[in-house]
Design brief:
Elongation Factor Tu (Ef-tu), domain 3; 32% strand; alpha/beta; seven-stranded mixed β-sheet; binds flavin-adenine dinucleotide; five-stranded antiparallel β-sheet; 3 domains; 29% helix; Rossmann fold
Length: 283
Protein backbone atom coordinates (compact mmCIF):
# COMPACT_ATOMS: atom_id res chain seq x y z
CA UNK A 1 0.00 0.00 0.00
CA UNK A 2 1.24 3.48 -0.87
CA UNK A 3 0.03 6.36 1.27
CA UNK A 4 -0.93 9.66 -0.33
CA UNK A 5 1.09 12.16 1.70
CA UNK A 6 -0.22 15.29 0.05
CA UNK A 7 -2.78 16.24 -2.56
CA UNK A 8 -3.34 19.56 -4.26
CA UNK A 9 -5.74 20.67 -7.01
CA UNK A 10 -3.63 22.77 -9.38
CA UNK A 11 -6.31 23.72 -11.86
CA UNK A 12 -9.76 22.39 -12.60
CA UNK A 13 -9.37 18.57 -12.87
CA UNK A 14 -5.55 18.59 -12.63
CA UNK A 15 -3.95 17.29 -9.45
CA UNK A 16 -0.56 16.96 -7.81
CA UNK A 17 -0.03 14.08 -5.40
CA UNK A 18 2.99 13.08 -3.33
CA UNK A 19 2.93 9.35 -2.74
CA UNK A 20 4.98 7.09 -0.52
CA UNK A 21 6.91 4.74 -2.85
CA UNK A 22 10.45 4.22 -1.53
CA UNK A 23 11.55 1.58 -4.04
CA UNK A 24 10.48 3.73 -6.99
CA UNK A 25 12.02 6.88 -5.49
CA UNK A 26 15.32 5.12 -4.84
CA UNK A 27 15.85 4.09 -8.49
CA UNK A 28 13.97 6.52 -10.76
CA UNK A 29 15.52 8.97 -13.20
CA UNK A 30 14.22 11.74 -15.44
CA UNK A 31 11.92 10.48 -18.19
CA UNK A 32 10.61 7.39 -16.42
CA UNK A 33 7.08 6.51 -15.42
CA UNK A 34 5.20 4.34 -12.96
CA UNK A 35 2.07 2.22 -13.24
CA UNK A 36 -0.45 2.47 -10.45
CA UNK A 37 -3.52 0.43 -9.54
CA UNK A 38 -5.87 1.96 -7.00
CA UNK A 39 -7.57 -1.21 -5.76
CA UNK A 40 -7.52 -4.91 -6.54
CA UNK A 41 -10.15 -4.72 -9.31
CA UNK A 42 -8.78 -1.52 -10.78
CA UNK A 43 -6.98 -1.00 -14.08
CA UNK A 44 -3.32 -0.06 -14.12
CA UNK A 45 -2.54 3.38 -15.53
CA UNK A 46 0.83 4.90 -16.46
CA UNK A 47 1.83 8.27 -15.00
CA UNK A 48 5.13 10.10 -15.34
CA UNK A 49 7.35 10.40 -12.27
CA UNK A 50 7.54 14.19 -12.18
CA UNK A 51 9.72 14.46 -9.09
CA UNK A 52 11.08 12.33 -6.26
CA UNK A 53 12.81 12.47 -2.89
CA UNK A 54 15.09 9.48 -2.43
CA UNK A 55 15.62 10.07 1.30
CA UNK A 56 11.96 10.58 2.12
CA UNK A 57 10.98 7.72 -0.22
CA UNK A 58 8.35 9.75 -2.08
CA UNK A 59 7.37 10.36 -5.70
CA UNK A 60 5.30 13.18 -7.18
CA UNK A 61 2.65 12.66 -9.84
CA UNK A 62 0.58 15.20 -11.75
CA UNK A 63 -2.55 13.96 -13.46
CA UNK A 64 -5.59 15.13 -15.35
CA UNK A 65 -9.01 13.65 -14.65
CA UNK A 66 -10.01 12.39 -18.08
CA UNK A 67 -11.63 9.01 -17.43
CA UNK A 68 -12.80 6.53 -14.83
CA UNK A 69 -9.46 5.73 -13.18
CA UNK A 70 -8.11 9.26 -13.04
CA UNK A 71 -11.50 10.47 -11.68
CA UNK A 72 -11.34 7.79 -9.00
CA UNK A 73 -7.74 8.71 -8.17
CA UNK A 74 -8.82 12.33 -7.69
CA UNK A 75 -11.35 11.26 -5.03
CA UNK A 76 -8.63 9.81 -2.78
CA UNK A 77 -7.67 12.01 0.15
CA UNK A 78 -4.41 12.63 1.96
CA UNK A 79 -3.76 9.66 4.22
CA UNK A 80 -5.58 7.20 1.95
CA UNK A 81 -3.65 4.60 -0.02
CA UNK A 82 -3.05 3.35 -3.54
CA UNK A 83 -2.74 -0.45 -3.73
CA UNK A 84 0.14 -0.79 -6.24
CA UNK A 85 2.78 1.61 -7.49
CA UNK A 86 5.17 -0.17 -9.85
CA UNK A 87 8.29 1.44 -11.29
CA UNK A 88 10.43 3.02 -12.37
CA UNK A 89 9.44 1.89 -15.88
CA UNK A 90 10.72 2.88 -19.31
CA UNK A 91 14.23 4.05 -20.09
CA UNK A 92 15.56 7.24 -18.54
CA UNK A 93 15.89 10.15 -20.97
CA UNK A 94 19.38 10.38 -22.46
CA UNK A 95 20.87 13.55 -20.94
CA UNK A 96 23.99 15.16 -22.39
CA UNK A 97 25.91 18.42 -22.59
CA UNK A 98 24.90 20.12 -25.82
CA UNK A 99 26.69 22.76 -27.89
CA UNK A 100 23.56 24.91 -27.83
CA UNK A 101 20.17 25.28 -26.21
CA UNK A 102 17.83 22.55 -24.95
CA UNK A 103 14.16 23.45 -25.37
CA UNK A 104 11.44 21.57 -23.48
CA UNK A 105 8.01 22.18 -25.01
CA UNK A 106 5.21 21.13 -22.65
CA UNK A 107 1.44 21.00 -22.99
CA UNK A 108 -1.17 19.82 -20.45
CA UNK A 109 0.21 17.19 -18.04
CA UNK A 110 3.28 17.16 -20.30
CA UNK A 111 4.49 20.31 -18.55
CA UNK A 112 4.96 18.33 -15.32
CA UNK A 113 6.37 15.35 -17.24
CA UNK A 114 8.95 17.61 -18.89
CA UNK A 115 10.05 19.16 -15.59
CA UNK A 116 12.54 16.47 -14.45
CA UNK A 117 14.01 16.31 -17.96
CA UNK A 118 14.51 20.10 -18.11
CA UNK A 119 16.11 19.94 -14.66
CA UNK A 120 18.44 17.12 -15.70
CA UNK A 121 19.60 19.04 -18.80
CA UNK A 122 20.23 22.10 -16.61
CA UNK A 123 22.23 20.00 -14.15
CA UNK A 124 24.28 18.74 -17.12
CA UNK A 125 25.38 22.34 -17.75
CA UNK A 126 23.07 23.32 -20.61
CA UNK A 127 21.16 26.48 -21.42
CA UNK A 128 17.57 25.33 -20.91
CA UNK A 129 14.45 27.04 -22.23
CA UNK A 130 10.89 25.88 -21.48
CA UNK A 131 7.92 26.69 -23.68
CA UNK A 132 4.64 25.96 -21.92
CA UNK A 133 1.24 25.81 -23.56
CA UNK A 134 -2.27 26.01 -22.08
CA UNK A 135 -5.73 26.85 -23.38
CA UNK A 136 -6.04 29.63 -20.84
CA UNK A 137 -4.06 31.04 -17.89
CA UNK A 138 -5.92 29.16 -15.17
CA UNK A 139 -5.06 25.81 -16.82
CA UNK A 140 -1.32 26.47 -16.76
CA UNK A 141 0.63 24.30 -14.31
CA UNK A 142 4.16 24.12 -12.89
CA UNK A 143 5.39 27.49 -14.21
CA UNK A 144 7.24 28.42 -11.00
CA UNK A 145 8.89 24.98 -10.72
CA UNK A 146 10.20 25.33 -14.25
CA UNK A 147 11.41 28.88 -13.68
CA UNK A 148 13.59 27.49 -10.88
CA UNK A 149 15.45 25.11 -13.22
CA UNK A 150 15.37 26.91 -16.60
CA UNK A 151 17.18 29.92 -18.02
CA UNK A 152 13.99 31.14 -19.68
CA UNK A 153 10.33 30.12 -19.48
CA UNK A 154 7.85 31.24 -22.14
CA UNK A 155 4.10 30.68 -22.08
CA UNK A 156 1.56 30.49 -24.89
CA UNK A 157 -2.18 30.53 -24.21
CA UNK A 158 -4.81 29.93 -26.87
CA UNK A 159 -6.93 32.84 -25.64
CA UNK A 160 -4.05 35.22 -24.93
CA UNK A 161 -4.95 35.43 -21.22
CA UNK A 162 -1.26 34.99 -20.33
CA UNK A 163 2.01 35.02 -22.24
CA UNK A 164 1.85 35.01 -26.02
CA UNK A 165 -1.51 34.40 -27.68
CA UNK A 166 -1.21 31.30 -29.84
CA UNK A 167 0.44 27.92 -29.76
CA UNK A 168 3.73 26.61 -28.40
CA UNK A 169 4.88 26.24 -32.00
CA UNK A 170 4.51 30.03 -32.44
CA UNK A 171 6.79 30.62 -29.44
CA UNK A 172 9.32 28.10 -30.76
CA UNK A 173 9.27 29.85 -34.14
CA UNK A 174 9.88 33.16 -32.35
CA UNK A 175 12.92 31.71 -30.58
CA UNK A 176 14.31 30.47 -33.91
CA UNK A 177 13.66 33.86 -35.56
CA UNK A 178 15.55 35.56 -32.72
CA UNK A 179 18.56 33.32 -33.40
CA UNK A 180 18.39 30.99 -30.38
CA UNK A 181 20.94 28.25 -31.11
CA UNK A 182 18.61 25.29 -30.50
CA UNK A 183 20.27 21.86 -30.57
CA UNK A 184 17.59 19.66 -29.05
CA UNK A 185 13.82 20.05 -28.76
CA UNK A 186 11.89 17.85 -26.32
CA UNK A 187 8.12 18.11 -26.86
CA UNK A 188 5.96 16.34 -24.28
CA UNK A 189 2.17 16.48 -24.14
CA UNK A 190 -0.73 15.84 -26.51
CA UNK A 191 0.36 13.79 -29.55
CA UNK A 192 -0.90 16.43 -31.97
CA UNK A 193 1.40 18.99 -30.34
CA UNK A 194 4.38 16.61 -30.51
CA UNK A 195 3.58 15.90 -34.17
CA UNK A 196 3.38 19.60 -35.09
CA UNK A 197 6.65 20.44 -33.33
CA UNK A 198 8.39 17.45 -34.96
CA UNK A 199 7.16 18.53 -38.40
CA UNK A 200 8.39 22.03 -37.72
CA UNK A 201 11.93 20.99 -36.71
CA UNK A 202 12.39 18.35 -39.45
CA UNK A 203 13.30 20.72 -42.33
CA UNK A 204 15.50 22.69 -39.92
CA UNK A 205 17.38 19.50 -38.99
CA UNK A 206 16.97 20.20 -35.26
CA UNK A 207 17.12 16.99 -33.25
CA UNK A 208 13.71 16.34 -31.68
CA UNK A 209 13.11 13.72 -29.03
CA UNK A 210 9.50 13.02 -28.10
CA UNK A 211 8.18 11.39 -24.98
CA UNK A 212 5.35 9.14 -26.19
CA UNK A 213 2.20 8.44 -24.17
CA UNK A 214 0.62 5.60 -26.12
CA UNK A 215 -2.02 3.43 -24.46
CA UNK A 216 -0.40 0.98 -22.05
CA UNK A 217 -1.72 -2.09 -20.27
CA UNK A 218 1.17 -3.94 -18.62
CA UNK A 219 3.94 -1.34 -19.09
CA UNK A 220 6.63 -4.00 -19.31
CA UNK A 221 6.78 -4.98 -22.99
CA UNK A 222 4.50 -8.02 -22.92
CA UNK A 223 1.03 -7.03 -24.17
CA UNK A 224 1.84 -5.00 -27.28
CA UNK A 225 -0.83 -2.37 -26.64
CA UNK A 226 1.67 0.50 -26.65
CA UNK A 227 3.17 -0.37 -30.03
CA UNK A 228 4.07 2.44 -32.42
CA UNK A 229 5.87 2.55 -35.74
CA UNK A 230 9.18 4.41 -35.67
CA UNK A 231 11.37 4.57 -38.80
CA UNK A 232 9.15 1.87 -40.32
CA UNK A 233 9.71 -0.58 -37.46
CA UNK A 234 7.35 -1.69 -34.70
CA UNK A 235 8.53 -0.48 -31.31
CA UNK A 236 7.05 -0.89 -27.85
CA UNK A 237 6.92 2.47 -26.11
CA UNK A 238 6.99 1.09 -22.55
CA UNK A 239 10.10 -1.05 -22.87
CA UNK A 240 11.99 0.57 -25.76
CA UNK A 241 11.01 4.20 -25.05
CA UNK A 242 9.35 6.20 -23.94
CA UNK A 243 11.59 8.61 -25.87
CA UNK A 244 11.88 8.36 -29.65
CA UNK A 245 13.09 10.47 -32.56
CA UNK A 246 10.06 12.65 -33.31
CA UNK A 247 11.01 12.84 -36.99
CA UNK A 248 10.61 9.06 -37.34
CA UNK A 249 7.33 8.44 -35.48
CA UNK A 250 4.25 7.46 -37.52
CA UNK A 251 2.05 10.05 -35.81
CA UNK A 252 -1.20 9.29 -37.61
CA UNK A 253 -1.03 5.63 -36.57
CA UNK A 254 -0.15 6.58 -33.01
CA UNK A 255 -3.06 9.00 -32.73
CA UNK A 256 -5.53 6.52 -34.18
CA UNK A 257 -4.34 3.85 -31.70
CA UNK A 258 -4.95 6.32 -28.84
CA UNK A 259 -8.64 6.04 -29.68
CA UNK A 260 -8.82 2.25 -29.98
CA UNK A 261 -10.50 1.74 -26.59
CA UNK A 262 -12.76 4.83 -26.77
CA UNK A 263 -15.99 2.77 -26.51
CA UNK A 264 -14.76 0.77 -23.51
CA UNK A 265 -13.43 3.93 -21.84
CA UNK A 266 -16.80 5.67 -22.28
CA UNK A 267 -18.56 2.60 -20.85
CA UNK A 268 -16.19 2.46 -17.88
CA UNK A 269 -16.78 6.15 -17.15
CA UNK A 270 -20.57 5.77 -17.42
CA UNK A 271 -20.45 2.73 -15.12
CA UNK A 272 -18.30 4.67 -12.67
CA UNK A 273 -20.76 7.59 -12.61
CA UNK A 274 -23.86 5.37 -12.39
CA UNK A 275 -22.51 3.35 -9.49
CA UNK A 276 -21.53 6.32 -7.35
CA UNK A 277 -17.84 5.89 -7.93
CA UNK A 278 -17.84 2.09 -7.71
CA UNK A 279 -15.50 0.43 -10.21
CA UNK A 280 -15.91 -3.02 -8.77
CA UNK A 281 -13.50 -2.32 -5.97
CA UNK A 282 -13.80 -0.75 -2.55
CA UNK A 283 -15.23 2.51 -3.86
C1 LIG B 1 4.25 6.83 -20.28
C2 LIG B 1 2.99 7.58 -19.97
C3 LIG B 1 3.03 8.60 -19.04
C4 LIG B 1 1.86 9.30 -18.72
N1 LIG B 1 1.96 10.28 -17.80
C5 LIG B 1 0.85 10.96 -17.44
C6 LIG B 1 0.93 11.96 -16.43
O1 LIG B 1 1.98 12.22 -15.84
N2 LIG B 1 -0.23 12.63 -16.13
C7 LIG B 1 -1.41 12.36 -16.77
O2 LIG B 1 -2.41 13.01 -16.46
N3 LIG B 1 -1.51 11.39 -17.71
C8 LIG B 1 -0.41 10.69 -18.06
N4 LIG B 1 -0.51 9.69 -19.01
C9 LIG B 1 -1.84 9.37 -19.58
C10 LIG B 1 -2.62 8.54 -18.57
O3 LIG B 1 -2.03 7.27 -18.45
C11 LIG B 1 -4.08 8.41 -18.99
O4 LIG B 1 -4.66 9.68 -18.90
C12 LIG B 1 -4.85 7.46 -18.10
O5 LIG B 1 -4.42 6.15 -18.31
C13 LIG B 1 -6.34 7.59 -18.39
O6 LIG B 1 -7.06 6.60 -17.66
P1 LIG B 1 -8.59 6.84 -17.31
O7 LIG B 1 -9.18 5.54 -16.93
O8 LIG B 1 -8.76 7.95 -16.35
O9 LIG B 1 -9.22 7.36 -18.66
P2 LIG B 1 -9.70 6.50 -19.91
O10 LIG B 1 -11.11 6.82 -20.16
O11 LIG B 1 -9.28 5.08 -19.76
O12 LIG B 1 -8.82 7.11 -21.08
C14 LIG B 1 -8.94 8.42 -21.57
C15 LIG B 1 -7.85 8.61 -22.65
O13 LIG B 1 -6.56 8.46 -22.04
C16 LIG B 1 -5.69 7.69 -22.87
N5 LIG B 1 -5.36 6.44 -22.15
C17 LIG B 1 -6.22 5.56 -21.62
N6 LIG B 1 -5.63 4.55 -21.05
C18 LIG B 1 -4.33 4.74 -21.20
C19 LIG B 1 -3.21 4.01 -20.83
N7 LIG B 1 -3.29 2.87 -20.14
N8 LIG B 1 -2.01 4.49 -21.20
C20 LIG B 1 -1.93 5.66 -21.83
N9 LIG B 1 -2.96 6.42 -22.19
C21 LIG B 1 -4.14 5.95 -21.90
C22 LIG B 1 -6.45 7.42 -24.15
O14 LIG B 1 -6.10 8.38 -25.10
C23 LIG B 1 -7.88 7.57 -23.74
O15 LIG B 1 -8.70 7.94 -24.80
C24 LIG B 1 0.63 8.98 -19.36
C25 LIG B 1 0.59 7.95 -20.30
C26 LIG B 1 1.75 7.26 -20.61
C27 LIG B 1 1.73 6.15 -21.60
S1 LIG C 1 2.22 -1.65 -22.39
FE1 LIG C 1 2.24 -3.74 -22.91
S2 LIG C 1 3.88 -3.89 -24.30
FE2 LIG C 1 3.94 -1.82 -23.69
Amino acid sequence: MHTILSKQELTERTWHMRVEAPLVARACRAGQFLMLRIHENGERIPLTIADWDREAGTVDIYFQEIGATTELLATLAEGESILDVVGPLGNPTHVEKLDGTFVMVGGGFGIAAGYPVARAFKEAGNRVVAVLGAKTRKLLICEEMLKAVCDEVYVATNDGSYGKQGLVSDVLQGLLDEGEDIRLVFPVGPPIMMKVISQMTLPLKIRTVVSLNSVMVDGTGMCGSCRVTVAGKTRFVCSEGIDFDGHEVDWDEMMSRQKMYSRQEAEALAYYHEHGGCLGGKR
